[in-house]
Amino acid sequence: QSALTQPRSVSGSPGQSVTISCTGTSSDVGGYNYVSWYRQHPGKAPKLMLYDVSKRPSGVPDRFSGSKSGNTASLTISGLQAEDEADYYCCSYAATVVFGGGTKLTVL
Amino acid sequence: QLQLQESGPGLVKPLETLSLTCTVSGGSISSRSYYWGWIRQPPGKGLEWIGSIYYSGGTYYKSSLKSRVTISVDTSKNQFSLKMSSVTAADTAVYYCAAASSGYSLRAFDIWGQGTMVTVSS
Fold first, then answer.
1. Interface test with chain B among A33, A49, A51, A87, by most B beta carbons within 10 Å
2. Nearest to A32 by CA among A7, A52, A2, A50
3. Using an 8 Å Cβ cutoff, are A75 and A95 in contact?
């Protein structure tokens, strides 16, 4: 149950797109389509942004998209906005659950 | 609309047992529509799943914490709880309770409590 691997930080300018990767193993990310992504602003609880790799909960804009190839999942945010600056965590939910280490997104 | 609220001591002494409760409102703890979980976040660090409990009563725990953790449900109070024994400073964290709904495949935590800070210190 090692943490999934994410880049420590990414950045982009308003209007641009950024992609955050999440690498696991065939026992978690690669073995199941139960990858979810969470956004967390400082001092706040995490918010679900994507589930089942690429599905968006109601209320999440279509600027957020997800994909998976092999043992790596990705979150892409297009049309960056100031409010997107936050920490992002991926998660694999099989029988047990494992989170990624988190990625700090800075909007320049 | 389901809501979760954590409660419990904010300060626990080393080697004692941490006990937290999550009160569920807007839905039943016995519903087959939800799985329940505990997640924590040490100061300045990432999220760490502690364990989950299902409507069947089945529990799953992070392997490195399994020997110290118990998650249980109290249907009479519509609550689920976390007990962690023999705590150390490394257990200092914000503790979140969360729910995974059937509307989201029961495999993503779509509802979170606000979190409660627990400090382990003498």
1. A51
2. A52
3. no
Closest CA in chain A for residue B113: A45
Q: What pLDDT shows up at residue B102?
A: 86
Residue A26: burial class (beta carbons within 10 Å; 0-12, 13-18, 19+):
exposed
C-alpha B22/C-alpha B12 separation (Å) is 18
Whether chain A has a CB inside 8 Å of the CB on B110: the answer is: yes
User: By C-alpha distance, which of A47, A96, A9 is closest to B115?
Assistant: A47
- pLDDT under 70: residue ranges of chain A: none
Taking a C-beta distance cutoff of 8 angstroms, is the pair A45, B96 a contact?
yes
Predicted confidence (pLDDT) per residue in B53-83, tens digit: 988 889 999 999 999 999 999 999 999 999 9
